[in-house]
Design brief:
Layout: H1 3-17, E1 20-23, H2 28-41, E2 45-51, H3 57-70, E3 73-78, H4 85-88, H5 94-113, E4 117-119, H6 133-139, H7 145-148, H8 153-162, H9 188-203, E5 210-215, E6 218-223, H10 228-233, H11 235-245, E7 249-252, H12 261-271
Parallel strand pairs: 1-2, 1-4, 2-3, 6-7
Antiparallel strand pairs: 5-6
């Protein structure tokens, strides 16, 4: 089955649902789901974005812009995962507690409005990664139309580009809490430090994948190797700015950016 056949299957399945809520993060996966749901169901599709300290300010603004471009109903709710001690302690299944809070809120909205289906942006490739949030999705009967249709990340980008979605090639950007090593407590101050640090690097011209890893007094910058030069050329500015944020030290990871770096560290510990 090619990408066009898969998206046609997804469209048919969503159309049969009648009314849906899409957990809309602004990433390309949930954007495509919201786009299809809006085309198939019109006003009966609602994209809902969860705003919390773990969501970068820029990401929240982008969800508003994308929803407007799509012509989708869009609402913002507020989640309080930071008030959950299990989440703030940052265990390896942190995402489970975050998604539980999100889906509790979305399920409440769905119940109030007589909506049976909540959709997420999980795709076929995500099954190969460590994703404890999937357990929360299963517990809340969340539907993953991309996964169910067997649509991969590359196919998502291909389809999104053909549909004219402006973020078709946007790098993945998980929540800011993912920048904290497992076991390091997540704090509001730390989240702000990471958010403002990444925003500053974007202003310097970093366009590809980017992470500012929070190592308490140290910030470890991960960018794609082709953008190392930007970091080196602006090293004094970066060090000065990051010190104003609260970091004492700044380092560049010479391995370059890699998604799931924190999971990689977890795997090494389990081997030892």
């Amino acid at each position: 089955m090619d990408a066009n056949e898969k998206i046609a299957l997804m469209c048919t399945r969503i159309r049969k649902m009648g009314k849906v809520i899409v957990a809309f993060s602004g990433g390309i996966d949930s954007t495509l789901v919201l786009k299809v749901a809006t085309e198939e169901l019109g006003v009966n599709a609602i994209g809902i974005t969860a705003s919390s300290p773990s969501l970068a300010e820029k990401e929240l603004e982008e969800t508003k812009s994308l929803a407007a471009i799509i012509g989708a109903n869009h609402e913002i709710i507020f989640t309080q995962e930071m008030e959950d001690g299990d989440y703030a302690a940052n265990p390896i299944n942190r995402c489970y507690f975050c998604k539980t809070e999100l889906y509790d809120k979305l399920r409440a909205v769905a119940s109030e409005r007589g909506i049976a289906y909540i959709l997420d942006g999980l795709n076929a490739d995500d099954l190969g990664d460590y994703r404890p949030g999937m357990k929360a999705a299963k517990e809340h009967l969340v539907v993953s139309p991309l996964k169910d249709a067997g649509i991969t990340k590359n196919e998502i980008r291909e389809i999104a580009k053909s549909m004219g979605l402006p973020n078709w090639d946007k790098p993945s950007s998980p929540c800011l809490s993912s920048r904290f090593p497992y076991g390091t407590k997540i704090t509001l101050k730390g989240l702000r430090m990471v958010d403002k640090g990444e925003a500053f690097l974007r202003e310097l011209g970093i366009e590809g994948s980017l992470r500012v890893r929070y190592l308490e007094k140290m910030a470890r910058i991960e960018v794609e190797s082709c953008e190392f030069a930007i970091i080196v050329e602006n090293s004094e500015k970066i060090i000065s700015h990051f010190r104003t944020l609260g970091f004492e030290f700044v380092e560049l990871d010479l391995r370059g950016f890699k998604s799931g770096r924190m999971n990689e560290a977890m795997a090494l510990k389990s081997e030892n």
